[in-house]
Amino acid sequence: MPSIKTFLIASAFIIFAHTAKSENSFSYIPEIHGTLRAKYELSTQTGKNRFEVRNARISVTGKILPIISYRMEADLCDEGAIKMLDAYMRAQPGYDLKFTIGQMRVPFTIDAHRGPHMQYFANRSFIAKQVGNVRDVGASIGWSYGEKTPIILEAGIFNGSGLVKQKDYWTSSLNYSAKVQAFLMRHVNVTLSVQKATLGQVNVFMYDAGCYFESDKWHIEAEYLRKHYKADAYNPVNAFNAFTAYRIPLSKKISSISFLGRYDYMSNHSKGNYNESGLLTTDDPTRHRITGGITLSLGKSKLQADVRLNYEQYLYENKSVITNISEQNKIVAEFVYRF
Q: Which residue pairs from 155-158 have beta carbons closer than 8 angstroms and sit at least 24 positions apart in sequence?
């Protein structure tokens, strides 16, 4: 005669099997994704050139319960360094709510939130790279509402320690970030966001506004960011990014070709480093940049391959400024693979 233990195990198995077949079924099997970016660059001012593996990212996502998911992502070659990027758990109890805790990109800006395979150009905008690029450890909450005009709200609090200073980092003043997106007429996105962040030993406050229009063939986008340093430790920074991309569908082998143009700008910017006089240094001098490009896209859905060819023209207001060779006029050929 079967024991109570056997009966309970069998009942649990039947319940589990029934749940697996229900409309809310899910898989415990994790999904593994990867992004590889390799590029060739030629400096048209110096004649020097190089090859570089820009990214070799691996991510693992999955669920342990229908409402509990996780994500882990590491870059095995971020310009030659290994970096842990995402490591968070997320609960989605319903009502279009989501709670996230761990290491993540904070909810802020449009362009800085794009992964490498989602970027339009070989090199990121100044907003996405220098001015508004923040990953941190903390907790966030998100809520979406509406069908005809969807609105997405996200807000979170964060250490301010960044990615590598968590162990001994204690603070009496957490950082925060908040972002709201509205999707209008199915083709227009309007995004507003605000953030308090920490650069070295100084707090900064950033405000961002952007919008884009997207259709089957066009993507037109503009974004403005202003960064304030607490106690006027450094002059406020203004950054602007605007670009357009026109996509032409082709064949099965080459799915599309895109023609792109971008203008972006950044005024004098400090990363929070002090000089011997106790003043913040200018790490990025005022610059304008014009970028033109062509992208060939191969593959669809989860398997993607892009070939990007860009030319970048830099314009510095201070003609005597000494800049890194990577921040000068150049031709970039980049190959991007995503699985």
A: 155/107, 155/179, 156/100, 156/106, 156/107, 158/106
